[in-house]
Design brief:
The chain is an alpha+beta fold and about 80 residues long.
Length: about 80
Amino acid sequence: MEEMNEYITLEDGIDYFIIDEIEENGNTYLYLTNENDVEDFCIRKMADNNKVVALDNEEEFKKALLYFTKKHKEELNTENE
């Protein structure tokens, strides 16, 4: 996976690298990893005012995660071998 080399600071004060952006169903999802702990992964989305916000609920999180896994299916399969 190619890192985008951009980062944002979330409400917890931690800097996260943006590793991907996916537009789906009228939303832009941001896939983030903690710059100091790559296992700290989270998903946020862009609001209409270009602010980064949390997802609405667990169902939206699952859908956003599915978009990511579908997009990176081949990369994820080779990493698990």
